[in-house]
Model the fold of this input.
Amino acid sequence: MAFLTTATLVMRPVGALLFGMWADRRGRRVPLMVDVVFYSIVGFACAFAPNYTVLLVLRLLYGIGMGGEWGLGAALAMEKIPTERRGFWSGLLQSGYSLGYLLAAVAFFVIEPVFGWRGLFAFSLLPALVALWVRSRVEESEVWGKSVALNRTPAHQVFRNPAVLRRFVYLVALMTAFNWMSHGTQDIYPTFVKKGLDLSANTSISAI
Done:
């Protein structure tokens, strides 16, 4: 489980790059909807994986969709919100991560005892379809539309600015540390408690 989680997260930058480049050229709305459809199908297919190898490949593909969804979704949301209110709403957006873990725990408590882990993957199609329905009714980003009308500077010229390059490297290092901390505690640490310390499921829950 820990390796599958790590493999999924490793592919997030790939998805962010691919879908991000597409969104910068064609707008946020269509790439985001395509991305939601993509990771919804891949996530649902995980329920029918016949072996570990197939499941690993599907999780790698899911990681690409996961990376694309977060970047595009956050960009579209923030570009729709007035500049002076983005601080509050960006914090609220980030808190949805923890809320999602809580809802996932509830889903596990209800679905896993009856349908097993495959049932959880199958159920993941439902919230993804709801997200697709919501985003299909969101108009294109006006901020992106205005940027298209202007002469945009190529990326390689932007990174020639030492200040931009330093800030970019700093943010990459910062977010890498954040991901190690959050996913290490939320995703991988429970596995460490059960497998590394040989605690039972009930005992590991109490320890965590």
Summary: The CA atoms of residues 33 and 136 lie 7 Å apart. The chain has a mean pLDDT of 84. The chain has two domains: 2-150, 153-208. The two ends are 17 Å apart (CA to CA).
